[in-house]
Amino acid sequence: QYREYNTSPIQFTSAITIMFKAFDRSEVSTSSQVKASVQRGIKAGIAKANPKITEEELDVLLPKKPPLVQYKVGPHMMLYCRKSDAEEGSTPSDEPVFFQHRDGPILPTLRTIHKYPTLDFTSVTADKGAIPFILGGANIMCPGLTKPGQSIMPPDGEEQDAQGFDKPGLSKGDGVVIRAEGKEHAIAIGVMMMSSVDIRAKNKGVGIELAHSLGDGLFLTDGL
């Protein structure tokens, strides 16, 4: 448990974050090559969740060849990896690029985000006061997302709903890249626990369940 950086309730660490906190290669049980039809489905899911990424950019991110390799981690986690370019004299390895918990959204790893900084993944911005808690593995509470000027509902559109919030908003269960106020690079990946409309309206409770953050075991794993 982690105390909130303001007067909000205690923050809890998610099961996914606990899994990746001290993740290492020994936790991988099985691996198999992803079928072409499955890879197309993964690509389509990523495109739907990140509408600002173009088809051409997706082709660079997920080329048809070589196919992805999927690794099972524990009973409910899947890592989707691709062959990384090995330096001369070194052994090729499989680089984690996306992961999925149960039937949840397919989420990019932070290494993927940092490797392709121009790709416009669906993102939110957290208050700078939340940074140490996020890096410690804490879920993000609503007050850390509702400071004026924070991007909790990307993209900011002109059309508004009945409550006066911009459309399109984010839905419960959506995967998001988490950026921090004043920081250039993404610091975490998470899943919306409420819609963006509810986060602003309620402004209490867990807004985003953390899945993966800078410095965790997955981030420190460059290949399998």
UniProtKB/TrEMBL annotation:
Q: Which CDD domains match?
A: MCT1_N, PUA_MCTS-1-like
One GO cellular-component annotation of the UniProt record comes to: cytoplasm
Subcellular location per the Swiss-Prot or TrEMBL entry: Cytoplasm
Q: What is its main location?
A: cytoplasm
GO function terms (MF aspect): RNA binding
Q: Which InterPro entries match?
A: MCT-1/Tma20, Pre-PUA, PUA, PUA-like_sf, Uncharacterised_CHP00451
Where the record annotates domain PUA, the positions are 122-215
The protein's UniProt keywords, in alphabetical order, are: Cytoplasm
Q: Which GO terms describe its biological process?
A: formation of translation preinitiation complex
Q: Which domain of life is it from?
A: Eukaryota
Q: What is this protein called?
A: PUA domain-containing protein
Q: Which organism is it from?
A: Pseudo-nitzschia australis
